[in-house]
Each structure stands twice: as C-alpha cells, then as structure tokens.
Amino acid sequence: MGEKKRREVTKEVKNQPYFIFEKKNFVMMAIGLGVIALGFLLMTGGGSDDPEVFNPEIFSWRRIRLAPMLVLLGFGIEVYAILLNPNKK
C-alpha cells in the first residue's frame, strides 16, 4: 500500500510544470533590452529637412561606433541572461 502511494506522489511531481527562468534571468533580460534600445536611440537623427543639403552629422562617432557597440553588447547580455543558471551558487 505504501509503495503505490509513493509512485503516485513521484508521478505528480514529475508532471508539475516549472519555469526554467527565474527573477535573476528576467532582470538581466530587461537590462539587455534597455541597452539595445539605448543603442538604437543613439543611431537616430542626423537627417536633413532638405534632401538637396548634405548633413555630415550622420557620420558622427556616436552613430558609427558607439550605438552599434551598445546594440551588440545588449545582444551579448541577452545571451548571458538566457544561459544564466540562477540556482548555481
């Protein structure tokens, strides 16, 4: 009688759904999304109202180097957040 009850309890434990990600993973994902959004915001602008006038501001250091590096860093943070094991101490 005890063996049957033990098997039923282990079946219930195996069938219960659980989340792979925990709060730490979601916080890291939010940070990564924020860094990506910041990178894309830094890329915006530099246009001209008149299509006949060239605006050299589109080739600024911020748009060419800083913003793409931030976007790539954000994607790196996202990969780290996915691979992060919150139970590891």
Q: What integer is the average pLDDT?
A: 85
Rg, Cα atoms, Å:
24 Å
Number of strands: 0
What is the number of independent domains? Answer: 1
Can you write the helix and strand succession as a string?
HHH
Largest sheet: none
Shape: rod-shaped
Catalogue the unreliable spans: none
Decide which structural class fits the backbone: mainly alpha
The proportion of residues forming helix, as a percent range, comes to 55-70%
Question: So how many helices?
Answer: 3
Q: Strand-residue fraction?
A: under 5%
What separation lies between the terminal Cα atoms? 40 Å
Determine the oligomeric state from the structure: single chain
Descriptive overview:
Helix 2 (23-43) runs antiparallel to helix 3. The protein has one domain (20-83). The protein is rod-shaped, with a radius of gyration of 24 Å. It contains three helices and no strands. The two termini are 40 Å apart. It is mostly helical and 89 residues long. The model has no long low-confidence stretch (mean pLDDT 85).
What attributes characterize this protein structure?
mainly alpha; 65% helix; 0% strand; 89 residues; single chain
What's the quick description here?
The protein is 65% helix and 0% strand. It has 89 residues and is an all-alpha fold.
SSE blueprint:
Elements: H1 2-15, H2 23-43, H3 61-83
